[in-house]
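Good morning N.,

You mentioned wanting to compare the apo and holo forms, so I went ahead and generated the holo version with alpha-D-glucopyranose. This is what I fed in:
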Amino acid sequence: MENLKADWFTRARFGMFIHWGLYSMPARHEWIRHIEKISQEDYKKYFELFDPDLFNPKEWAKMAREAGMKYIVITTKHHDGFCLWNSKLTDFSAVKAPECKRDLLREIVDAFRAEGLNIGFYYSIADWHHPEFPIDKIHPDRIDPVEQNKKRDISKYNKYMSGQIRELLTNYGKIDILWFDGCFPVEQEDGSDHWDAANLAKMIRSLQPGILINERLAKRMTFTPYEIDIKTPEQKPPEKGIRDDNGNLVVWEGCQTLSGAWGYFRDELTWKSVEDLVIMLIQHVSRGGNMLLNVGPTSRGEFDYRAQERFEGLAAWMKYHGRSIHGCTVSPEWAKEPENCRYTYNPAANRLYVHCLVWPYSLLRLPGLAGKIKYAQLLSDCSEIKFIEEEDDVVLKLHGRTELSSMLRVPRPVMMRPNVTVPVIELILN
Ligand code: GLC
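and this is what came out, ligand included:
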């Protein structure tokens, strides 16, 4: 059945993921405690010195809106257990960090709402700070886990977790998405989760009836089934989208990084170009999904220059091409993508968008589209593109030639590759 709650979400198509926390200080991956086996004691220095003196979430929110993003998902707490909000249940929070002393989450929520974006909270089930959270094989303190776990009681941690979720869903107004992650701890003997996902989901929905919950709250749905609103594959845009057993699209969102990590990683160099990112976004929407693009702000509270450059590039493209992204989805069956092109389709407007990943000089053949097109234009400037029909196909004439009188001999002006990251042709359908 269609999930009407998710309507805004599937129309939005583009969101901003933010991974921010103490790990932005070592700046060597958000899993730094795990990777370098940093002890609780040694990690404390980051808590004591964390000072986001340049933090101005209004700037973040403006960048997100200008890039055409319609919602954010912010890490309220990642695996290291550090909380960006004023949690009454722990001292390990931004409010208690001596150089910070601010409810960073409150400021982020206010700033993004003011720009008209919807709000999603990421919450990590795994918590490497909490004394009752089990020592599993990825825990940073994984020395002698059997002995250590004897002294740990996950039911106490569960109480903490549901208490925190209650805080998040009670004190920050309407929350649109709860995005779980870090579903690692060992299972109970019957294979179910220690935290009873089904009941937790019930509580969440009673606090925020319209909320969307992703699929990462339970390890195995057989034991603690709950209604999943969003599937969230990461790092690879699925080639064919995600469909259920009947072949229907499910609501899905691919999350992607700007570079190889989620938290700020100073020396990581595999940054995607603006063009890579635009193509990825198109790829997600053309396969019926959303793209949640991550940024890891620095510990001073800024998007670093590389991230800013990417957002500026996205904004430049989205200014002219938001129409081929927002409200769009997979193209109808009869529209088969030509080589080097991706289609997206807006069913409400009945318009089909041809994204030219490689610019086809002179002519572009669109198989099976004869009789379907009323008008064609280049989206960036809405200049007309003439076309002819050849049997089943439509052939777009990518040049400005008009039928000149036979007396005139002028060179045929070929249409230049438009000066945009990925050119888009808008087809207004009959
Ligand atoms: C991966 C990363 C984790 C990040 C998540 C976002 O699982 O390990 O740090 O939060 O992706 O989906």
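The mean pLDDT is 94.

Happy to go through it together on a call whenever suits you.

Best,
F.
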